[in-house]
Automatic annotation (TrEMBL):
One of its GO terms (molecular function) is catalytic activity. This is Thiamine biosynthesis protein ThiH. Residues 256-359 form the Biotin and thiamin synthesis-associated domain. It comes from Desulfuribacillus alkaliarsenatis. Pfam families: BATS, Radical_SAM. InterPro entries: Aldolase_TIM (IPR013785), BATS_dom (IPR010722), rSAM (IPR007197), rSAM_sf (IPR058240), ThiH (IPR012726), ThiH/NoCL/HydG-like (IPR034428). Its cofactor is [4Fe-4S] cluster. Gene3D superfamilies: Aldolase class I. Keywords: 4Fe-4S, Iron, Iron-sulfur, Metal-binding, S-adenosyl-L-methionine. GO terms for biological process: thiamine biosynthetic process. NCBIfam families: thiH.
Length: 368
């Protein structure tokens, strides 16, 4: 049974009605349980849980230290190219957007890798738009081979692949996969993905599992908060993470909580996810899935990231550029989206130390 079939058992659940039925005792019970089920998780996402955030935060902090210690993993994204054949309503790389597209040559990539490496980071996340003609798997493999000279952990956030293609990338050194479903609601998914291979909801939904099957050490998922109903999207994100973590016990499963940010386009979020809702989702996830990694990126402000650091976060991006060649000074490229926290790696490390946590630049090394 794949995740889609598993999740169908909740098709008859009226989430809005269920959330309205949650009372204070349901929330208190969920906070105090050792092992939460799906409905306990939903109780912690409910409006009734608003006044219990302090208790949730205390429990989330304890669980995070228990399973991860006082550590925050640091990484940065590296964009290989911004060519894309999709028409996603919310993304600057939409094929209909008119701007000069870029793709790194191996020589360009060496400069980019060198610039990032000087910061001390050993973990990177490699990104592309979706264009099998401009950035085929063979090109990505060449890039990974080069990047292994500089980095000990290389994750990818690219277009969905078949299992055998993921295996090819694992074989050359990729150890992590990030792939966001963007929105779990199928109708909204169809509305915001106007054209291109990304319109295939099921192929994208199953990509995370194909990565697990292919041998990825870590798999990171997420919904793009703002595209769909907050409660429903947060609920299905948790279900998806639990499904992967339960079925693939040797894979480190992580969840990102990205909110829509300004980009080169006019799309407006369907819903506004407040800071409090973002924090509530993070706390509920930690109580529901104590071993899941939680990533808060530079889409969020420095003030918010600093405040929530002790409450469940295990990974943060630092020294970020969302443009092709951005780390080595390419000013002509366009951002995929605007970031909020522009601090350098050094500044992020200092902030983490000030919070009595340990920044982790390397916790994985591949001996081949």
């Amino acid at each position: 049974m794949d995740f889609y079939r598993m999740s169908q058992q909740y098709d008859e659940l009226n989430i809005e009605r269920y959330l309205n039925s949650i009372d204070d005792q349901d929330v208190i019970n969920a906070i105090n349980k050792q092992h939460l089920n799906e409905l306990d998780y939903l109780a912690l996402l409910s409006p009734s849980a608003d006044k219990y955030l302090e208790q949730m935060a205390k429990r989330a902090r304890e669980l995070t230290i228990q399973h991860f210690g006082r550590t925050i993993g640091l990484y940065t994204p590296l964009y290989l190219a911004d060519y894309c054949v999709n028409q996603c309503a919310y993304c600057s790389f939409n094929s209909q957007q008119q701007f000069k597209r870029n793709k790194l040559t191996l020589q360009d990539l060496e400069k980019e890798a060198g610039a990032i490496s000087k910061t001390g980071l050993k973990h990177i996340l490699v990104l592309t738009g979706e264009s099998r003609s401009k950035t085929p798997v063979s090109y990505i493999k060449e890039c990974i081979v080069l990047l292994k000279k500089y980095f000990s952990s290389i994750s990818i956030e690219i277009y969905p692949l078949d299992v055998e293609e993921y295996k090819e990338l694992v074989d050359v050194g990729v150890d992590g996969l990030t792939i966001y479903q963007e929105v779990y609601n199928e109708e909204i998914y169809r509305q915001v993905h106007l054209k291109g291979p990304k319109k295939d909801y099921h192929y994208r939904l199953n990509a995370a599992e194909r990565g697990c099957v292919a041998g990825m050490r870590s798999v990171n998922i997420g919904t793009l908060l703002g595209l769909g109903d907050f409660y429903s999207e947060a609920f299905y994100t948790g279900l998806h993470a639990n499904y992967l973590q339960t079925k693939y016990i040797d894979v480190e499963v992580g969840v990102s909580l990205p909110r829509l940010r300004p980009f080169k386009g006019a799309f407006q979020p369907r819903t506004t996810v407040s800071d409090q809702q973002l924090v509530q989702m993070m706390l509920a996830l930690r109580l529901y899935l104590p071993r899941v990694g939680i990533n808060i990126s530079t889409r969020e402000t420095a003030k918010l990231r600093d405040a929530i650091l002790p409450l469940g976060v295990t990974k943060m991006s630092a020294g970020v550029s969302t443009k092709v060649g951005g780390h080595s000074g390419n000013e002509e490229a366009s951002n995929q989206f605007d970031i909020s926290d522009e601090r350098s790696v050094e500044e992020m490390m200092e902030m983490i130390y000030q919070n009595n946590y340990q920044p982790v630049l390397k916790d994985w090394h591949l001996f081949r």
